[in-house]
Design a protein that fits this description.
Number of helices: 8
Number of strands: 17
Oligomer: single chain
Protein name: DNA-binding response regulator
Structural class: alpha/beta
Largest sheet: 5 strands, parallel
Radius of gyration: 21 Å
GO molecular function: phosphorelay response regulator activity; transcription cis-regulatory region binding
Strand order of the largest sheet: 2-1-3-6-7
Number of domains: 2
Keywords: DNA-binding, Phosphoprotein
CATH topology of the largest domain: Rossmann fold
CATH architecture of the largest domain: 3-Layer(aba) Sandwich
CATH class of the largest domain: Alpha Beta
Distance between the termini: 35 Å
Organism: Runella rosea
Shape: elongated
InterPro entries: CheY-like_superfamily, LytTR_DNA-bd_dom, Sig_transdc_resp-reg_receiver, WalR-like
Strand content: 25-35%
Length: 256
């Protein structure tokens, strides 16, 4: 069995290759190919593999672009660090979706799903499902994110523009802290509620206590343990730490 890997992060690719060899030692791995262009060139010169492991975000675009241009009939297991791509269509259309960092058990389940697909009499059904998925992705409504937040300042209720937010913090109540270090009480009940309203390209849930805006991040440093400590442009009462498990996802987000 031949598996084509589309992945532009060397460390992620190395870890994924290790997991694949543990779970499917008989498989032949091709790649990793790091870009849409490289993948298109590869498909022009080679027959389809049995399975594709495709990171959604590649060096020069998204892997969906490959499948828009080519008619691919083999199964695809999508991977990504960004859960905003996790729409129901991936499961409904029998295409597996794995969130980074890749869990071995999740990858095993995806391979088991691939095995069930191999025993399906009408394998052309997959290509139809993929076309339906791509059509849905093109035509789904764009989510509207919140750009102004109400908060309490003395006895007044004020509206704070997204561009003035440095971070949200949970300290018994939910506080909004501005870029000029004003601390304002909000009426939100949880960070989960706020997180759902925010543009994930601009804000990140650092941990259970903090949501941080990208423009308020000055720098970060990596601990020997693999955890990440954030340095903000405004003072904070304590260290803002991102866990080792979320470190790779954070680095990608920080660079975008």
């Amino acid at each position: 069995m031949q598996i084509l890997m589309l992945e532009d992060e060397p460390l992620v690719a190395k870890n994924l290759e290790k997991l694949v060899r543990e779970l499917l030692p008989q498989a032949t791995l091709v790649g990793p190919l790091v870009s849409v262009e490289a993948a298109l060139n590869w498909f022009k010169q080679n027959p389809e593999p049995d399975l594709i492991l495709a990171d959604i975000q590649l060096a020069d675009g998204v892997s969906f672009d490959i499948f828009h241009e080519l008619k691919v009939s083999c199964p695809i297991i999508f991977t990504t660090a960004y859960d905003e791509y996790a729409i129901r269509a991936f499961k409904v259309n029998s295409i597996d979706y794995l969130l980074k960092p890749i869990d071995k058990q999740d990858l095993k389940s995806a391979f088991e799903k691939f095995g069930r697909w191999q025993n399906t009499p009408d394998k052309e059904v997959f290509s139809h499902q993929l076309r339906d998925l791509l059509h849905d992705l093109e035509h789904r409504a764009t989510k509207q994110y919140k750009h102004r937040f109400t908060a309490h300042y003395q006895r007044a209720v004020v509206a704070v523009a997204e561009t003035r937010v440095a971070y949200f913090v949970r300290e018994e109540v939910i506080w909004l802290v501005t870029i000029d270090n004003q601390r304002l009480i909000t009426d939100y009940q949880s960070l989960d509620e706020i997180e759902d309203l925010l543009d994930p390209t601009q804000f990140i849930r650092a941990n259970r206590q903090y949501i941080v805006r990208k423009e308020a991040l000055e720098s970060y440093r990596t601990h020997y343990s693999g955890k990440i400590e954030l340095s903000l442009t405004v003072p904070v009462k304590e260290e803002i730490i991102i866990s080792k498990d979320k470190a790779a996802q954070f680095r990608i987000w920080f660079e975008l």
